[in-house]
């Protein structure tokens, strides 16, 4: 397994024990906070593409599966680059397992947003589909009002299985799918909580039709016991995520993975208007809190070490 620490903020460097453990496993490190401050939260395509040379594999060499740690969940759109690079390197159909408290499926015309990247990945020719699980956030309450691209649900390119969520209010007809049934103006979700972990694990495996799987984990899907993030958090326990990953790894090849969701203080660059827009957005969308840095570091270090060790076993 190839391990990459991508330092776009200071989230990982606030976890020296984790960084040392990753280095001991031969991790490669890339530091580019200049690009990080420019692309945080959302980015023009040109700015995001500046990261492509850093994550590229050597020409003509099929590298082993790669695990990347990215820092804050404000960088989840970088996963779109990592998934595309992996899908092209292995050049076979891949299923993306997306574990998140948010569906990340909004329409965003000005570039790529940490809440819009799923649409870009769904359009990739080598990505068979994206299975999103763990969502608890209000993004599902009135998804059309929040700018959700529900067309991917209808086409089957995206399946969503919330951890726990009431039916969503919608205006249009979307029919039924593996993840929901429509009852009038409501989408009634098939939730992980209602199924139970054992039943859901078997059901999830039945929905993966490719040999290759890519895993992307936003730790805001985890309860505050297991992670401290910049975003509102879900209810998944780390132990549940590990059981699901282990079940997937037994039947499929994990060709790549990334982990985001470590808390860091937001730092933005760009024009005054860009910085004001981003600050305004997080005031609306993110909880107003400043966690204890030491406690956050300890919590996220423990979870990252567990994920590093678990992925090392599953991807070796």
What strand order characterises the main sheet?
A: 2-1-4-13-12-5-7-8
CATH structural class: Alpha Beta
**Overall 3D geometry?**
globular
How many domains would you count in the coordinates? 1
Report the CATH architecture. Answer: 3-Layer(aba) Sandwich
- The helix-and-strand class reads alpha/beta
Radius of gyration: 18 Å
Q: Gap between N and C termini, in Å?
A: 5 Å
- CATH topology description: Arginase, Chain A
What is the tally of helical segments?
12
**Unreliable segments of 5+ consecutive residues:** none
- The ordered string of helix (H) and strand (E) elements is EHEHEHHEHEEHEHEEEEHHEHEHH
Q: In CATH, what is the homologous superfamily?
A: Ureohydrolase domain
- Helicity range: 25-40%
Main β sheet profile: 8 strands, parallel
The strand count comes to: 13
Query: DSSP strand (E) fraction?
Result: 15-25%
Q: Residue-averaged pLDDT, rounded?
A: 93
